[in-house]
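Explain my protein.
***
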Amino acid sequence: MTTTQKGSAEAAAVTVRVFGALRQAIGQSEVKVPCAGDTVKDVLRRLSADRNGEVEHYIFDKQGNVWHSLLLLVNDEPVDNVLQQTTSPGDVICLLLPVAGG
């Protein structure tokens, strides 16, 4: 990949920031995911596929729906509907897993 192609690919990507157990599973705190006006759910599907499904159970239930307990932010704003909210290159998606304990 040339420098120009790499720059184009990164420009057409969103940054997904992950925390907690998901960060440990992925092995890093930020991941660039290609997008082209994709919905938030599409980006999360691509993130899971890029990791060979290893993180799928953190993000999706058995029916393939995004867990309702996840806190999702796009550019620091809460996501109300992962199926309708589209992303743009340069967006930042934060994925926060619920924390249990006491």
Summary: Residues 40-50 form the longest helix (11 residues). Confidence is low (pLDDT under 50) at residues 1-7.
